[in-house]
Each structure stands twice: as structure tokens, then as C-alpha cells.
Amino acid sequence: MIRQLIEKIQKTKAPVCVGLDPMLSYVPEHIQAAAFEQYGETLEGAAEAIWQFNREIVDHTFDLIPSVKPQIAMYEQFGIEGLKVYKRTVDYCKEKGLIVIGDAKRGDIGSTSAAYAVGHIGSVQVGSKTYSGFDTDFLTVNPYLGTDGVKPFVDVCNSHDRGLFVLVKTSNPSSGEFQDRLIDGRPLYEWVAEKVVEWGDASMDGDYSNVGAVVGATYPEMSRILRNLMPRTYFLVPGYGAQGGTAEDLKHCFNKDGLGAIVNSSRGIIAAYKQEKYKQFGPEHFAEASRQAVIDMVADINRVL
Amino acid sequence: MIRQLIEKIQKTKAPVCVGLDPMLSYVPEHIQAAAFEQYGETLEGAAEAIWQFNREIVDHTFDLIPSVKPQIAMYEQFGIEGLKVYKRTVDYCKEKGLIVIGDAKRGDIGSTSAAYAVGHIGSVQVGSKTYSGFDTDFLTVNPYLGTDGVKPFVDVCNSHDRGLFVLVKTSNPSSGEFQDRLIDGRPLYEWVAEKVVEWGDASMDGDYSNVGAVVGATYPEMSRILRNLMPRTYFLVPGYGAQGGTAEDLKHCFNKDGLGAIVNSSRGIIAAYKQEKYKQFGPEHFAEASRQAVIDMVADINRVL
Fold first, then answer.
1. Which domains does chain B have, with CATH numbers?
2. B117, B155 in Cβ contact below 8 A?
3. Which of A96, A207, B62, B183 could serve as a FRET partner for A65 with CA atoms 20 to 30 Å apart?
């Protein structure tokens, strides 16, 4: 699966993914009004508003980008109705030829991780039939429980040609609280990185492994070290744009071949029309603002590669 | 919320929760057949089988126990249809007067954790209305991202009188891989424990905090230390029974007042009819086997208290 992602990155010349993390407050008034008109101020109404919002953004950006990363929490907050739109968004993006990274940060004891794995990136057995619950191409995974909590995801990657991004060093302000603590002189995230390499060793797919890592754009010095520690691990890099990471900060996430990382931006793209810079589009043309923001982001990143 | 849980534990004299973690393979043949007859071998069929299985177990045990802990992964593996049954199970258990611990192990950057928190233990705003997506009483939370990833859950606990159990030391075989690593001479799980105490300081609800901890039954020496480190933190203790933890192993999880811990058993209760010990019930009477297994578990634990 990482090979497919790389091919799409090379084709679009855009090592980016658009984070489809819609807060209802990002959805322009006219879309919310139309959805509430149809379904009332209900969970169905919220879900419909988010779906219309997503669809327009995807329609206006899919030809420019290799992939999207829907954050499942933003759908889960609306319960079942929200999750239906998560699935609908995943399916729609795949129809449009996009690679879909499900940002779910799941992780549990072995038997439980196995259930998450079949539900999100594999298939579940029901009598003599098999079904895919959510069917994303990649999934983000939390490593706190260690190897037996991650291994079932890796197994499903191998059997279904899918990929993972395991949290190594996250982009949030307090990520260092545990992740940066020194163990035998080295921060925890380096120990996790070594395990990610080990977990991914048997999942090579071309030059890179299907087992990737999440490495935040907001800690550039650390990404330099992690790049060296994990030469064949693809990085999913959150934190660019709204969270404060700049293109300069991203340099070290890439290998010398210009590959090795895919940079996510969520709010900076999907709510671009709310920024001073893209104000001229107006809420009616929010998706055109997103398209311009993608073009600008790609140019910004390619400038440092 | 922890006060309500304690009252129910005292009333039932049962510091236990039943883990509603149904694998389809646990569901007796006759229930699967009836569900597949109605819906075919589909995700709806699997979900219906699990719902009927859960309902019977709850009907046969709710008077003996204070709480249940549905593991959301076991539902999520069947996609939307599975998650509908997760919700239905949560709602049904609450109608029966049970306290529901949603075992979801969520955790992300701040804004994303906030979305999970409103979806699972709080309420989400839609225009002028508010709705609860899943509406469990407690939620399990993963601490790898640090304070700003946990704080939004704590905030919702405080505003909605709900509770958390934050992963500290998990019950699985490789939990020590990162959790036991020494940082300034003390294992990571102790540092997490100290943070859990800090996070819970402003969430006291009677003698205990609404911010609890997950501490596996399978590491008794560690639970003794954690009990001392976290005197006012309630422990959710997985790993008893099928995972290998014994009643003796649990002793240290409790305070001298006999409170401080609630012990989960999943497979050992819900699939009791498959054990040699309860074989006489047979698959037709699986829920009576579960009832007997609850009675035996409660006696076993009370023996060491």
C-alpha cells in the first residue's frame, strides 16, 4: 500500500494529505442551514452538513492530492449518524481515486487490536462471508500497549496490503510529557521508533515499509533524528500550518530522494475561507479557497525539498 | 459518577464489572442461526446475533453487578451495524440501572480528544440543541499524548459528572515494553500514575476522584506500588480470569476500606458456557452459565478482601 501512496505522491508532485476533520463551526452557514432545513437541528442534520462540506472539498481538491486523512473523532462526536458520514466520506474519497488514511489512533490488547484491525483495514468474517466495516487504506495506531497491541494491525496490513502510521512523536504541545522522557539516555520516542522499524521489517513494499510513523512537524530537531533512525519508514507529519509547523520545519522529515514523508493539513485547508489570506473567496466558495490553500501548501513544501 | 459506582458496588457487594466484549464465536449456534435466518450472513445479521447474546447476558446478571464494560472494538469490527449495537447495548444497560464503562481507549491532540469526549461521555452542540452520541458513564483513555490530550476528557467529566479510567499499567504480556522502562529510576507507569493523580485532583466526587486508572491484574507487585501512589484513584482492573490474573493477585488493588478497585472479567463471564466448569448449562442456557460465573467471581474476589 505504501508503494501506491508513493506513486500517487510522485504523480501529483504533492507530498500532502488533506485532513478531513470537520468541526461543525467550519461548515459555512448556507450548508448548515440547508441541512437543518431538511433534517432539523439533529444529529442527522449535523451529519448531512458535514457530508456536503466534505464532498465539495473533495470535489475541488482530489485532482491535486494523493490522499486524505479523515479524523474519525470528528464524526464519532455525532454518534452513529456521524460515523455513517465517516464511512460515506471514506468510500467517496476512494471512488475519487484518493488513498484514505483513517486517523483513529486505535490500540489495545492483542485480541482487541485484532478487532479494530479487521474493522478498519481488514475484513471481518460473518458465517461464510467477509465484510469490510470501514475499509480505509491506512490507519493510525497508538503504541502504548507494546508489541502485542500493534502486531494484529501489522498482520492485517500484510494480509490485506494496507498500511499503518504508528504514533512516535506527536505534534501537540504536551507530547513531550511522556514521549521525551529519557530511558537509558534516549527519549521514549526513539525507543518507540526502533520498535516501529522492527514491526515494519517484514512489511516492506518497495523501498519503504507499510508500517509508517506519525512524527509531528512541530519538533524539527527530533524529526531529523527520527529520519536517521527509521530510513525506510514513511512519516505521516501532522502539525503543519494551523498547529504552527512551517515548511522549513519539515525538511528533516524527508529523505534525500524527496520521499519519506506525507504532510497533513486539516484546518489550514478545509477552513481556509476563514483565513484573511483566502477571505476573498467568501463562504459560498469555501471549496475553491480550499483548492487554493492546497496549491499554496504544495508549493510551500516543494520549495524546501 | 465514581460515587454512584461505589454506591452500587456496596449495594451489590460485588466490586466487578462484566466485559461485554462479544466475539461472534462466543455467540451460541442457535442465536447465530436465528439472526442469519432473519438478516442473512451480513453485518446486520452479526450485529443482531451479538445484540441477542448481550441482552440475555444482561438480563441474567444485572441484579448481581454494579456495572458493565462494553469493549467498543468488538462492535466497531462490524462497522456501522456493530456500532448501532454498541449504542443499543449501552442504552439497555443504563435502563437496567447499570453503570456503563465504555472501553474505547481514545486519546489524541486536544481538539480531537474534545470531540471524542463530547461523543462518548458528554454532549455535542447542533445549532441550538445538544445530543449525546454514545452516552456512557465512564470512558477509558490512552495517555501517550500527555496532558493536553487527556484534559478535554477531564473537562467533560467535570461538566457532565462522568468518569474516566486512564491507562496506567495494562494487563497484556508486552505492556512492559514501554510502560516498565525506567525514567530517572522509576518506571514510566509510575510517572503516568502521578499525572493521573494530578489530572484527577479537581474531580473529587466523595472519597475518590472521577479520574480513575487502568491497572492490570496480571502484575500484582506493580499494583501494590500504584495503590500507594494513587490512594484516591479508583482502579479498573482487567486481566482477571481468562488473561491469568487470580483473586490473590487483586488484593493490592484495593484499599484497606475494601474499596478502590473494580475488577473486569469478559470472556470468563460471557463465554462461561464454553468452560469445562460450566459445561452442564449447555449453549441453550449460556446466560445462566454467565450468571453462575458472576456469582463465583464475586465470591472469589470477596474471599481475599
1. 2-304 (3.20.20.70)
2. yes
3. A207
